[in-house]
Amino acid sequence: MIFLEHLHFLDFAGVAVFAATGALAASRKQLDIVGFIFLAAITGIGGGTLRDLILGKLPVFWVQQPAFIAVCVVIAVGIFFSAHLVESRYRLLLWLDAIGLASYCVMGTMIGLEYGISPFAAIVTGIMTATFGGIFRDVIAGEKSVLLSDEIYISAALLGASSFALLMSFQVDKTIAITIGFILAFTLRAAALLFGWTTPRYKSRKGREVK
Amino acid sequence: MIFLEHLHFLDFAGVAVFAATGALAASRKQLDIVGFIFLAAITGIGGGTLRDLILGKLPVFWVQQPAFIAVCVVIAVGIFFSAHLVESRYRLLLWLDAIGLASYCVMGTMIGLEYGISPFAAIVTGIMTATFGGIFRDVIAGEKSVLLSDEIYISAALLGASSFALLMSFQVDKTIAITIGFILAFTLRAAALLFGWTTPRYKSRKGREVK
Amino acid sequence: MIFLEHLHFLDFAGVAVFAATGALAASRKQLDIVGFIFLAAITGIGGGTLRDLILGKLPVFWVQQPAFIAVCVVIAVGIFFSAHLVESRYRLLLWLDAIGLASYCVMGTMIGLEYGISPFAAIVTGIMTATFGGIFRDVIAGEKSVLLSDEIYISAALLGASSFALLMSFQVDKTIAITIGFILAFTLRAAALLFGWTTPRYKSRKGREVK
């Protein structure tokens, strides 16, 4: 019970931090308060919505638990009136976003496994849960997608999702597997934020023009 | 029966006006006739498709009633050959679009409620039905999203959807609730078009740089 | 049996060539290897995922057969280390892409018909299967959508899907219908590539300004 509540806390925290990044994108576009709520909701619930669609777990989670939407509304309204404070703490937000990424890649994978799909498909589902909210946010706000940035991002989700799935396949205790998956994903993302870690990029070589 | 036909008329009218805006976006991009049909269909049926996916009402509505696709084809072909006339009547189109927005936010909410979801989730579903067709159109056509424009748009959908849901929760007659929801949404959007009404925007304050 | 294996070969070949175009888009954006895999997977499985969602055939195909994801990973890794060779063979890739387009428009339509939907809706589903992977790729990579290019593309999918559906409605043998649909779509796309065939575009006329 306590464990489940802990998970729900993580879930709401994940929605909240992603919603906050959506609201901050809205502040950069100088939208109105409804625009803040709209972008916050799409970012907060987008990844989980896609996960539920792909699994066929319908209606999607926020239809069954509208409190997730309420969290997005509260966060969006709060940031509309305080973004001048929060945005000066953008560094803090990146860290909250790292928490969201780390919890979502593990929980998306866990929900896939609980739904009975293969570990490999569950890892893909976990990565999607962690990344697609941000993709929707960037596409709708007309900003460069997080996927195209130099910072390690998807790799951290891959590490968290695959380590969790691997541990579960070895019958490791679920709480331990969640904790390790979360810590690995968060640590990799944190290292990228602290030390500017990047992964090797594809570089065009001589004699070829890159469009 | 007459009431239901009236609703279906509203539904087809909504698809038709949104399809028309998609075809006009295609004319601005100077696409071929198949491109007109493609963008018209995505705009016309996109919001309702997302609604059905989220509710788990599958296959989606236009698979069960392909007449909705036929409406998009007819509208797209008509506009391909007459956009030089219609586009000079762009103002008229904005008014038709306002009719589509107003009817869709109410009908999306109604379908959600009929499907048994909570009023709060139904309002979210209604707003999505009314707005996502235009978002798909703008993203695929590479135009600035309607969400980022100065005009009141999503707020009108919010007003129509929430007033309809509120009236339904007070057991008001469905036809009256639909009519009031439609009128409120349409009037707010119409006022925005007539008088340039906007909502208060987030403004950055001193000492902070907005990207 | 042999026929089914042949179909599966076509299916995997379609995923593989679309995944290759996604990985090449990643090389143009100079992403890391995880970015290559991500864009390759979205492009390879995106159209089929949307098809399954719309039909309500859930979980989607790659959850049930993760080998499709594995194909995308292999292709993406291969191209990450060899894109300097492959991209100099971009013309070859366009031809492989034409094979993917031609096989997908027919197979998407076939899956729709097998699922019991109307021929008209099945044609729409087939066109979406063939085109949406590329749309997702272009939107996420921030490139101009294939829909907006001058080359014949969607029209080829329309030709393949509708000719296949027409032949099936006349009780033509399925293998023959598939072959003809494939050849028609591929030939039209090939002609566009070889001879620069385009379809008549909408042109603005006097006295009207095109945005």
Radius of gyration of chain A: 17 Å
Question: Main β-sheet of chain A: number of strands, strand sense, barrel status?
Answer: none
Estimate the helix proportion of chain A, in percent. over 70%
Quantity of strands of chain A, as a count: 0
The pLDDT mean of chain A sits at: 85
Order of helices and strands of chain A: HHHHHHHH
Shape estimate of chain A: globular
Q: Helix tally of chain A?
A: 8
Q: Quick one: which chains have the greatest interface?
A: A-B, 34 and 35 residues
Structural class of chain A: mainly alpha
Distance between the termini of chain A: 55 Å
Assembly state (oligomeric): homotrimer
Low-confidence stretches of chain A: 206-211
Proportion of residues in β-strands of chain A: under 5%
Overall structural domain count of chain A = 1
Write a compact overview of the structure shown.
With about 210 residues, chain A is mostly helical. Chain A has one domain (about 1-195). The first copy, chain A, has helices spanning about 1-30, 35-55, 60-65, 65-85, 90-115, 120-140, 155-170, 175-195.
